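Tokens in:
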């Protein structure tokens, strides 16, 4: 079988191959903040929800909790602050194995169980745990996010904090 290669195809192949070499290698979590924000905003755009803005204060808070979880080898939500409630999504997976986008995509994949309606009656399975991360990602009243990752002994832990918090009973996610 003979393949014809146009100059355009060759240029695209060379560009795709050479770009990482010219720009330097990128790791799975290089530019974590930018990549996590972009992953959130791609999904929000798909739902017609305004994009999130990065918040350094939320990221610092997320970093402290991620480091706590990694050091303690635990995986649990932080205690809620009743004066300034924040939403929170947690992710953990094999150390140095997942990209920033794959981490956020784990939450976004919950949309397969999502149905429109008032929270918490948004899950086709009847379990809010099946859609709660997804609804926080796309929650209409959330405008800011800050995330951070920490490395535990065997796993990476990503914590994202959201303001305004989402997942309020009786409200429509988007």
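Residues out:
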């Amino acid at each position: 079988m003979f393949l014809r290669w146009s100059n355009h195809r060759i240029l695209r192949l060379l560009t795709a191959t050479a770009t990482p070499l010219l720009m330097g290698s990128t790791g799975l979590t290089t530019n974590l903040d930018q990549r996590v924000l972009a992953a959130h905003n791609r999904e929000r755009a798909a739902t017609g929800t305004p994009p999130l803005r990065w918040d350094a204060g939320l990221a610092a808070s997320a970093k402290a909790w991620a480091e706590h979880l990694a050091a303690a080898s635990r995986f649990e939500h932080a205690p809620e602050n009743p004066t300034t409630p924040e939403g929170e999504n947690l992710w953990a997976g094999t150390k140095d194995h997942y990209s920033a986008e794959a981490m956020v995509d784990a939450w976004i994949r919950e949309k397969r169980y999502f149905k429109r309606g008032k929270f918490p009656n948004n899950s086709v399975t009847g379990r809010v745990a099946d859609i709660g991360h997804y609804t926080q990602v796309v929650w209409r009243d959330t405008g800011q996010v800050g995330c951070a990752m920490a490395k535990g002994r065997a796993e990476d832990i990503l914590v994202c904090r959201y303001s305004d918090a989402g997942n309020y009973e009786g409200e429509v996610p988007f």
